Amino acid sequence: MGRAAAQGTIHVSAINIRDYSVEKHKKVDDYPYGGGAGMLMQAQPVYDAWKAVTDAIGHPVRTVYLTPQAQVFTQAEARSFAQEEDLILLCGHYEGIDERVLETIVTDYVSIGDYVLTGGELPALVLIDSISRMVPGVLSNADSGIDESFSENLLEYPQYTRPEEWMGKKVPEILLSGHHAKVEAWRKEQSILRTKERRPDLLEDNE
Ligand code: 6GU
Prior knowledge:
By secondary structure, this protein is of the alpha/beta class. The chain contains 8 helices and 7 strands, in the order αββαβαβαβααββαα. 37% of the residues lie in helices and 10% in strands.
């Protein structure tokens, strides 16, 4: 990511929503109407921060809200977001954000998995990494095309490097054979077996 940003292939900037607070102590949160635990981010600073960014970009931009209340982020979505010239990632904190501003500005809701985090900042970094690596010029030729495992909905096959024997464990014979077609067939079979064993859910839903 650092290299891609230095080359100008990608550009990332962080906007502090607190800078858009209009209150004396730069407050951006308040109590939820109806009661309940925790604080909510208010609509006004979120909207004003978003508006400043959109106005600067000058055209409509997909705005992604990071929240556990969404479908889990997939490689297909990473690919789709990578097509966009610009993206806004909105990170909540506290118990969430006033629903009215979400209805007004958010185009996409994304979770990174079924567990709870304190805020959307780490999920945003996860998205930035996965989306950036799909942008032409970010990965070296050697590393690009590593999307293939997931685009076929299969896990990667097991891999081995030198030495041929380690702690009494040998590299599968077929990989030393130099027989390209047989190696390919073996890898495909391993991918299917591994997916059945570790992630059978991937074989069920076809995306
Ligand atoms: Cl995107 N945000 C938060 N706060 N928690 C999460 C998440 C997102 N994805 C999983 N847990």
